[in-house]
Each structure stands twice: as structure tokens, then as C-alpha cells.
Specification:
The complex is a heterodimer.
Chain A (H helix, E strand, L loop, with lengths): L11 H26 L1 H6 L9 H23 L6 H18 L2 H4 L5
Helix pairs in contact in A: 1-3, 1-4
Chain B lengths: L32 H29 L8 H38 L13 H6 L2 H17 L2 H16 L7 H31 L4
The chains are: A mainly alpha, B mainly alpha.
Chain lengths: ~110, ~200
């Protein structure tokens, strides 16, 4: 006997988690680029001096992720959303996260 | 080969053999406090994450109704939840120990006029054109991209926990999770790979 196949669930929570994850990755990347582009930002986000601005880039990136996740999760928890579109958006953000953390790219913005 | 006067190749071919042309004192293996943390960060956390990946990926891929009985699915999901949350925790351990413990030692600035840079990995790498790229590309990439791994792994763990056995009937969600899992693995591989090479070129001591 194989597993039952008729149990499904609204896809909103999965969509929210995936999109927020992509946006969180993008957030880390965006902070990396902004930190290169502005000495003031680099200084402002140095939350822990021994680790330098990396402490701020990652802390803010993680906060962006968690806040986005909480908001989307709240909005979509009982809904079916257009999963395909949300996933494409999530992977675009995720890919941008990879790109923006790639030194040859973010150093283009070096102040 | 350097043989002592009374050694015999027939009794023990290596007895009395020394690869060095002059006598050396016995040396102990040493690992510093910083190297311990480097090991915990890179080998224990980073290594465990990479090692666990294939098992998690296979378990996720195999959540297909046609392949599992109802009991089998329940058991597989329970195992998978522990596995992926464990992986997420390990990934967080890797980036937190890396960023807040090992990285500050790596980027510490040597005193003015210092000529021995062996305790200052970043400066040591940048001091030579032949090693500077390990910092400029390797470390700069690793320290940032590594953070994408725990984020992606946590997303995967959360969705598996929330949907549980129902995931078997959600091929689109499973597929998206698989790609997210692969993204986490890619980020960890970049970070771990460069970490290993950088440690070889300029260990944090």
C-alpha cells in the first residue's frame, strides 16, 4: 500500500518561506554592495568592530529575511498563491544574493 | 637513506631510517586555541553540513507517494525533520563561529612595522601578489556567500516541518525545496572550499 495522495494544504506558508528566503539572501547581497558603495554605511553597520562591517551586513540581511517572512507568512498563511510566480521571484532574489556577494561584482561599486 | 651503524634492512627496513640528513629532535603535534575554533567552524560545522547534504537531498527527493507506504512516509518525514533542522543548526553554527570568532582573528591588523605576519592571516595573504587573491576573491566571497546557506537551509527545514507528510502530494513545493537545498549546498561549498584553501595558504594561529 502506498501513501495516501489526497491530502493537500494551502501553499501560502511554503510560498512565504521561500520568497522570504530569497529576499533574505538578496538582503545580505544588497548590504554587501551598499557597504562597498558608501564609507558612511560601512562604518554605520560595523556593529561588532572585530568582525567589521560583515557583522552589520549579515545582521541586517537576516533581519530583512525574518521580517519579510513574518509579514508574508501572516498575509498568506491561509491562502493559495500563484506558487510558480512566487518561486520564480524567490529564485531571482536568491540568484541576486549570490551575484551581489561575488567580489568581482560588488567591488564594481567600491567607493 | 641514512642508516645507523647497527640497523639491519632485513629485520625492519625502516629502523634507523631518517629522511633528514641531520638528526632532529622529536616534535609534538600542536594545535592552538585559534586552530581549535577554526577546526570547529570549518571541519565540524562546515564539514558536517556538506556531509549531511546528500542524505537530506535523497530523503527529500524520495518523498513520493508511489515509493512509500503511509507508515513509511510518516517515518521518513520524522527522520527528515530532525535531519534538516540539524543541518540548519549546523549551518548557523558555521556562520556564527566563522563571523564572530574566527574571522576577527583572520582580519586582525599586525602592529606597525611588524615583519612576521604569521599570526595575521589577512595581512600575510595580501603581502604577496601570489596569495593576495585568496583574500580578495576567496575570503571576500566566502565570508558573505556563506550566510546564504543557513538562510536557505532554515527555509527548507521550516517548510518540511509545517507540511510534513502532505509534502508527498506537493511535487511543486518539493521541487522548489530541492532547489533551495541545492542553493544552500552551493553556498556552503563555496565557503567551505575557499576556507580550506585559505587555511592552507595562511592559517589562523
Amino acid at each position: 500500500m502506498t501513501a495516501k495522495t489526497n491530502e493537500t494544504m494551502k501553499n501560502g506558508l511554503a510560498a512565504a518561506a521561500l520568497l522570504a528566503g530569497g529576499i533574505g539572501a538578496f538582503g545580505v547581497g544588497l548590504m554587501t554592495v551598499l557597504s562597498e558603495a558608501s564609507a558612511a554605511i560601512k562604518t554605520a553597520i560595523t556593529f561588532y568592530a572585530p568582525a567589521g562591517p560583515l557583522s552589520g551586513k549579515t545582521t541586517i540581511g537576516v533581519l530583512i529575511w525574518l521580517v519579510t517572512w513574518a509579514v508574508l507568512g501572516y498575509l498568506w498563511k491561509d491562502k493559495d498563491v500563484s506558487f510558480g510566480k512566487v518561486v520564480v521571484a524567490a529564485f531571482v532574489f536568491l540568484a541576486l544574493g549570490f551575484l551581489f556577494t561575488f567580489p568581482p561584482f560588488f567591488l564594481l561599486f567600491e567607493a | 637513506m641514512y642508516l645507523t651503524e647497527n640497523s639491519s634492512m632485513l629485520d625492519n627496513p625502516l629502523e634507523g631510517y631518517s629522511p633528514y640528513p641531520c638528526p632532529i629532535k622529536e616534535k609534538n603535534m600542536e594545535i592552538t586555541f585559534r586552530e581549535w575554533f577554526g577546526t570547529i567552524h570549518g571541519f565540524v560545522f562546515g564539514g558536517a553540513f556538506l556531509l549531511a547534504f546528500s542524505g537530506g537531498l535523497f530523503a527529500l527527493y524520495s518523498l513520493q507517494p508511489a515509493w512509500l507506504t503511509a507508515d513509511g512516509l510518516k517515518t521518513r518525514i520524522a527522520q527528515l525533520k530532525v535531519w534538516v533542522w540539524g543541518m540548519a543548526a549546523i549551518a548557523w553554527g558555521a556562520v556564527l563561529t566563522g563571523t564572530y570568532i574566527v574571522y576577527p582573528w583572520y582580519r586582525a591588523k599586525p602592529p606597525e612595522g611588524a615583519t612576521d605576519l604569521s599570526g595575521f592571516a589577512r595581512s600575510l595573504l595580501l603581502a604577496s601578489e601570489s596569495t593576495a587573491k585568496w583574500h580578495e576573491l576567496g575570503m571576500e566571497w566566502k565570508e558573505h556567500v556563506g550566510w546564504l546557506a543557513p538562510i536557505a537551509a532554515t527555509v527548507v527545514a521550516y517548510v518540511i516541518s509545517v507540511y510534513g507528510a502532505k509534502l508527498a502530494n506537493e511535487p511543486k513545493i518539493r521541487k522548489a525545496l530541492t532547489w533551495f537545498f541545492l542553493a544552500a549546498f552551493s553556498a556552503a561549498t563555496i565557503a567551505g572550499g575557499f576556507g580550506a584553501f585559505i587555511t592552507k595558504a595562511a592559517p589562523v594561529r
